[in-house]
Amino acid sequence: MKQTISVLVENQAGVLNRITSLFSRRAFNIESLAVGVTDYPSLSRITIIVDSGNSVVEQVEKQLNKLVEVIKVRTLDEHSMIGWELMLIKVSANARTRENIMTICQIMGARVLDVTPTTMTMEIADTPVRVDDFEGMLRPFHILEVARTGIIALQKGSGKM
Amino acid sequence: MAMTGAQILVEGLLRQQVEHVFGYAGATICPAADALRAAPQIGYTLVRTEQNAGHMASGYARVTGKVGVCMVTSGPGATNLITGIATAYMDSIPLVAITGQVPSHLLGRDIFQEVDITGAVTPFTKHCYLVKDAAQLPRILAEAFHIASTGRPGPVLLDIPIDVQEQVVRHVEFPQEVHIRGYNPSVRGNEKQLDHVAAAICKAQRPVICAGGGVFLAGAQQRLREFVEKTGIPVVTTMMGLSLLPTEHPLNLGMVGAHGNVCANQALSNSDLLIMIGTRAADRAIVSPKELQKRLPSIHMDVDPAEIGKNMQATVPLVGDVGVMLGQLMDREITVDCGTWRETLRLQRSAELSRTYPVRTGSVFPGRLFRLLGQRLAPDAAVCVDVGQNQLWACKHLRLGGGRLLTSGGLGTMGYSLPAAIGVKTAQPERQTVVICGDGSFQMMMNELATVRAKGMDLKIVLLRNGVLGLVHQIQNQPPYHGSFGVNLEGDPDFAALAAAYGVESIHVSEEDQVEEALDRLMAAKGSCLLIADVSSQCLTTD
């Protein structure tokens, strides 16, 4: 089962290395990992998606908590969180296909960032499922390149870490 | 007052009440060495290879309860130290390891004697620092000692580039206290959980305590003994928990696990409540945790929350300092009615302790040797045991009246015993200290006889010689393997001549009827002495 772990850490060099090293050493698999600074410059938030059972996630949480630079760890409940992902996607496009692609972008709420006589590059920010759907819709047009940020997540409502 | 980074380092060590440093010289650690030279209050031991600086600091830390300190140079000095650090990590021993590093502006250029040591040791240090500004050193040092010694102890590494050691800091301020927002180990146990624990213990009819090295780390030996004697609950120990109670204490059933005492293992399989104190239920001690957790309820008391449920899912978990929690538990009314259970186990145990040992001509049986050695030990003797058959025999058969047994339980590092004993002797020169090793492990550490000689130390070394790497030899001669390979120690030197070269006297014993006299001579020898005992390579740990 995919689970989202949100980790607040000291915003210092080497912290990310310690965390990824912990995952490989304990044989935990990372599905995706996204890092960024928070509203406090000394704190970064790392959002990690793991595809594991509850006992593994519990052990991941405990091992993360042991790291000196880790301030807080929480596994977010999928029903009470907002999990969002950004994708950049470049596809082959010409005068004949451009309009079809535009329609898909309109339906899915994606934006066109770059267009050339032979390509189009779009961005979409949405739930991972919708991002997958968008990618699926563009597959027939021949995808040239994809970059995804991995999920970032916050709790819904007033809940915070 | 202006100070250099190296001076700050040494001043920081003094403020942490460091009395001794184990180290090896090298170019990038010269400024620190120079500052240490100016502080004769801190003793120094030059080891013969960096790995042993880690083991010596470990032996020192284990008997004093203080943080052991070792200091080596960059590159190969640092990589040689890695095994010492990993050994300490697996046994949760508090160390501060200091490594020199190449100038910070050249980091990453692969210059002479540069390695990324903080990168290398991250998986087996509790924490590590690459110090880039000497002004941060006072804080980093205070944090390093705090992290190493609190919660679940462990090694912390400080990598200090030579230019940072030389950097002059105008206004140096040493922090009065340490505050790390991501680091707050639990001390007291949850009161509600403690009520559950007390209730579970009162209900049990066949309870057994499994005590581990965590009890030593918490300095709670006396607490444990009080708790055990008050409740009358029988005790088994892990290898790391050996010597928590005297061997012949009526409630001590010996060591549990794959290589443990029969009686201890039987206690575990017949009990109706397992109380784990300061142990991580590691694979060698608790062989099939999943089966055990299905069969009986358990209580798990440990300072590290990550150990709860890692190897075994406990019915009642309890996180905190085991000494403090045993105290909290003793404030509660606990009555255990397990007289019959205790009596059955006590009879099994005395039968095991008085068993007769097999006799072979031309060699001695280690079990008997260790039983007789135990009778000759001072009540507070420290016994440092190496890894392999010698270790398993010693753990199973050595009688300890009190004292302390030290071994590399977690990592199983051969060559641990002699340097650890040097660490013990450095801290407590008057304490009787014995080394037990095999001919394989001895050759991994015999260079430290030079350190023994330099310091004029009195160590009694028992070397079991069987000409093979015994434990692996034993494993290879059992299915699924087809016989020995790469375990014959052909080329073993003349150990007596070797000892003599270091000015150490030696005694040789190869028949059972010589053992008592040989042990008497060993223990009576003035200064260090090596006892070479011939053991059959056919002799097994299960004999």
List keywords for this structure.
heterodimer; A: 161 residues; alpha+beta; Alpha-Beta Plaits; 2 domains; five-stranded antiparallel beta sheet; four-stranded antiparallel beta sheet; 9 strands; B: 543 residues; alpha/beta; Rossmann fold; 3 domains; six-stranded parallel beta sheet; 20 strands
* Structure annotation, total helices of chain A: 4
Order of helices and strands of chain A: EHEEHEEHEEHEE
Main pleated sheet of chain B: 6 strands, parallel
What would you give as the CATH superfamily of the largest domain in chain B? Thiamin diphosphate (ThDP)-binding fold, Pyr/PP domains
Counting helices, strands and paired strands, the structural category of chain B is alpha/beta
Rounded to an integer in angstroms, the radius of gyration calculated over CA atoms of chain B is 24 Å
Number of helices of chain B: 22
Structure description:
The complex is a heterodimer of chains A (161) and B (543). Chain A has 161 residues and is of the alpha+beta class. Chain A folds into 2 domains: 2-76, 2-Layer Sandwich (Alpha-Beta Plaits), CATH 3.30.70; 82-154, 2-Layer Sandwich (Alpha-Beta Plaits), CATH 3.30.70. In chain A, 29% of the residues lie in helices and 42% in strands. Chain A is built from 4 helices and 9 strands. Chain A has helices spanning 15-25, 54-66, 98-108, 128-138, and strands at residues 2-10, 30-37, 43-51, 70-76, 81-92, 111-115, 119-126, 143-148, 152-155. In chain A, strands 5, 6, 7, 8 and 9 form a 5-stranded antiparallel β-sheet that branches. Chain A has a 4-stranded antiparallel β-sheet with strand order 2-3-1-4, covered by helices on one side. With 543 residues, chain B is an alpha/beta fold. Chain B folds into 3 domains: 3-169, 3-Layer(aba) Sandwich (Rossmann fold); 191-351, Rossmann fold, CATH 3.40.50.1220; 358-534, Rossmann fold (3-Layer(aba) Sandwich), CATH 3.40.50.970. Chain B is 38% helix and 17% strand. In chain B, helix 3 packs parallel to helix 4 and helix 3 (50-64) crosses helix 17 (417-427). The radius of gyration of chain B is 24 Å and the shape is globular. The mean pLDDT of chain B is 96. The chains are: A alpha+beta (161), B alpha/beta (543). The interface between A and B is medium-sized, with 20 and 18 residues.
